[in-house]
Design brief:
- The complex is a heterodimer of chains A (about 600) and B (about 180).
- Chain A is an alpha/beta fold and about 600 residues long.
- Chain A has 26 helices and 20 strands.
- Chain B has about 180 residues and is of the alpha+beta class.
- Chain B has four helices and nine strands.
- The chains are: A alpha/beta (about 600), B alpha+beta (about 180).
- At the A-B interface, loops of A face α1 and α2 of B.
Chain lengths: ~600, ~180
């Protein structure tokens, strides 16, 4: 008879078989047997966070930057409820997470026991699937299935709730069933006919645009390479969602910049006027489409997505190709090469007028801003950060708000998995713990959290984690003393009634850094910015960089709510040209 | 037009809604009904009626029948979202008007009153397969099987004749002929 293992041992045996190297977690009563077992498994390193939400976001940062699932370990009750925000965040942005939570012993479930909560009930809507393990015999199978569910198809978070008595109970261990190598085909539901139809549309298009999203990143680095080849082959202009940044080089001439609410003028106008819209791994989010009725009214629409329920959910499309982005693009490239070897040249001519039009839109320089010699403009700070870090492989995380949009607009990514931001859920406090996770996955790389002072305070406690593991993350705070995006909406839409968006009392971030045992840098003088940024980069440990920026700056361009793509508000440069007064500015 | 103060786009005109019947084959495990029902409530879909029971103890399969209304886009979305649930094996859906599919609901009706009134009730129900399940001198419990609107009709018609309690199931469905759903 084979050896019997305790539930806690089985958890680790399974993690070992799934090649897990790191767990982000926080101990507590209901997971103590698992924590007790930790010492016997040296290949798995536990990262002790300061709050379970931080564990979740750190695991997200780890997963997004490495392509491997992030593993979280929390206790019952508050441990589980604290991780809910991170699970929801991962669900919205399709990040593979495996969360193991402790639960009160089976016989106490339902009795309102100490630190009991209905974890599977609470997390049901924010996970791809979850399990409450009621029988030790089910544990090995459930754990392996959990990894499978989290990482296949459209990735996402899963949760396994393990009662304390199950962690002590013993059973046989079974290895994961070796899945028949399907080469990822199990999720590909497209046929060659779909590809043929797609090629036909490509050949007919005069005003095409590629709109790529996070699905390209999730499909792996090969998908980004395929996307680049596809774009080169067709010569089509390409724009990207917030999550898709990095799949195509940000400084490339074919790239129109990000689209959507704070996207570029050229990207949004191209989306509006195009005759062929190719959505690759994006989901027509409401921050992208603006007014649905007037969304890209003249175009044939193609949607490539691994998740069938994304198709026709918001925008009806003419051709849906359900499958893994990498497989679909590869198949398309093959078909194009077979059909028309000369496409590159013939296409160039056919869409040259379209490119001329795009060039005209580009001349608006919609990301422009009026720089200042006195105050530091936040856009300028991001641009300088980019210039001073672009020579090395830099990973950027962000919090949520104006700084996030400025980072997306002004920091140019040329590789996938270098950009970690909370897009779907929009979780303030995401960036700092995410940076912790990214740095764990890439110990020798430069990891910067471009932050706002309001967001970063939500999970500031994780600086303590960074110091404990000597993770040299850089927290680059664009400090404008306001919840900037809230303030901007209030200025533009609520008659400048800045209700509760100003932080009356902020900590001294430099002293705070020192209190945590790391380096603090403050800058408010325009002239000092570069040297201080360099000082931050050169410092070997974690740094909190408090950059005091112009508090009144707004994030432009912007599509106001309920407006189509071609009715953007541009920045102050353009408004001055067009003599739009202060009053006109708020007419949105 | 009044300017919108929302950070979200305004909702646009709606298409016509249809009533559909969804049939789901699911693993009979703890929480599966909560997952299905939670999907409906969480995404703002409506459940008109619900019927669920195990149909295959060996294979551990339950069959859930849900009546819902929605635009064609919403109905398609419901189907695709249901298919993403891990314990859901198979999903089929039909328009209520579909002639190839039989829909039935069952009701238990308790009528209290004089024999003459009870007889009137029985007569009124004669098209709906009435079965007398329990009978006393001044009461009767009737079982009828019919369509939803027919049961609705009987419900209001029998009230003046002494109907004091109604208990009814959700709709269940099956195709006509030799074919099965797939």
């Amino acid at each position: 008879m084979s050896k019997l293992y305790s539930g806690a041992e089985i958890v680790f045996k399974c993690l070992e078989d799934q090649d897990v190297e790191f767990i982000f977690g926080y101990p507590g009563g209901a997971v103590l047997p698992i924590y007790d077992e930790l010492k016997n498994h040296p290949s798995i390193k536990h990262i002790l966070v300061r709050h379970e939400q931080g564990a979740g976001h750190a695991a997200e940062g780890y997963a997004r930057s490495s392509g491997k699932p992030g593993v979280v370990l929390v206790t019952s009750g508050p441990g589980a409820t604290n991780v809910v925000t991170a699970l929801t965040d991962a669900y919205m942005d399709s990040v593979p997470l495996v969360c193991i939570s402790g639960q009160v012993p089976t016989h106490l479930i339902g009795t309102d026991a100490f630190q009991e909560c209905d974890t599977t009930g609470i997390t049901r809507p924010c996970t791809k699937h979850n399990w409450l393990v009621k029988d030790i015999k089910d544990l090995p199978k459930i754990l392996h299935e959990a990894f499978h569910v989290a990482t296949t198809g459209r990735p996402g978070p899963v949760l396994i709730d393990i009662p304390k008595d199950i962690q002590f109970a013993k059973t046989n261990y079974s290895k994961p069933k070796i899945e028949k190598k399907l080469n990822g085909k199990s999720h590909n539901k497209f046929s060659q006919t779909d590809i043929e139809k797609f090629i036909d549309l490509i050949l007919k298009a005069k005003k095409p645009v590629i709109y790529s999203g996070g699905g390209v990143i999730n499909s792996g680095p090969k998908a980004s390479e395929a996307l680049r080849e596809f774009a080169r082959l067709t010569g089509f202009p390409i724009t990207s969602t917030l999550q898709g940044l990095g799949a195509f080089p940000g400084d490339d001439d074919q790239f129109l910049g990000m689209l959507g609410m704070h996207g570029t003028y050229e990207a949004n106008n191209a989306m509006h006027d195009c005759d062929l819209l190719i959505n690759i791994g994006a989901r027509f989010d409401d921050r992208i489409t603006g007014k649905i009725d007037e969304f890209s009214p003249y175009s044939k629409k193609v949607h490539i997505d691994i998740d069938p329920s994304s198709i026709n959910k918001i925008i009806k499309v003419d051709l849906a190709i359900v499958g893994d982005v990498n497989n679909v693009i590869q198949a398309s490239i093959k078909a194009i090469n077979k059909k028309d070897k000369n496409l590159k040249n013939s296409n160039k001519e056919k869409i040259s007028k379209w490119w001329q039009q795009i060039q005209k839109w580009r001349e608006k320089n919609s990301l422009g801003f009026i720089n200042s010699n006195e105050t530091i403009k936040p856009q300028h700070a991001v641009q300088r950060l980019y210039e001073l870090t672009k020579n090395q492989d830099t990973f950027i995380t962000t919090e949520v708000g104006q700084h996030q949009m400025w980072a997306a607009q002004h920091y140019k990514f040329d590789k996938p998995n270098r950009w970690m931001t909370s897009g779907g859920l929009g979780t303030m406090g995401y960036g700092l713990p995410a940076a912790v996770g990214v740095q764990i996955a890439h110990p020798d790389k430069l990891v910067i959290d471009i932050a706002g002072e309001a967001s970063v305070l939500m999970t500031m406690q994780e600086m303590s984690t960074a110091v404990q593991y000597n993770l040299p993350i850089k927290i680059f705070i664009l400090n404008n003393q306001y919840m900037g995006m809230v303030r901007q909406w209030q200025e533009l839409l609520h008659e400048k009634n800045y209700s509760e968006s100003y932080s009356e009392a902020l900590p001294d971030f430099k002293k705070m850094a020192e209190a945590y045992g790391c380096k603090g840098i403050r800058v408010s003088d325009h002239g000092e910015l570069d040297t201080k940024i360099q000082e931050m980069i050169d410092h070997k440990g974690p740094v909190i960089f408090d950059c005091h920026v112009d508090p009144g700056e707004n994030c432009f361009p912007m599509i106001p709510s309920g407006k189509p793509h071609n009715q953007m508000i541009l920045g102050p440069n353009d408004q001055e040209e067009n003599k739009i007064t202060g009053k006109g500015k708020s007419l949105v | 037009m009044a300017k919108s103060k929302s950070a979200y786009s305004v909702s646009t005109k709606k298409e016509k809604s249809d009533t559909h019947i969804f049939v789901l084959w699911v693993a009979n495990e703890a929480g599966v009904l909560a997952r299905v029902v939670g999907l409906f409530s969480g995404r703002g879909y409506n459940i008109e009626s619900l019927a669920v029971a195990e149909i295959d103890a060996k294979k551990n399969i339950s069959r859930i029948t849900i009546v819902t209304t929605g635009t064609p886009q919403v109905i398609e979305q419901i189907k695709l979202q249901l298919r993403k649930l891990v314990p859901v094996h198979k999903v089929a859906n039909f328009k209520r008007e579909d002639k190839q599919v039989i829909f039935k609901e069952m009701a238990l009706l308790k009528i209290v009153g004089a024999k003459s009134k009870i007889d009137k009730c029985l007569k009124a129900c004669k098209n709906y397969n009435p079965v007398i399940i329990d009978k006393t001198k001044k009461s009767v419990v009737l079982q009828i099987t019919a369509l939803r609107r027919e049961i609705d009709k009987m419900n209001s018609k029998l009230k003046p004749l002494g109907l004091i309690s109604t208990s009814r199931t959700g709709a269940i469905a099956m195709t006509r002929g030799a074919e099965v759903f797939n």
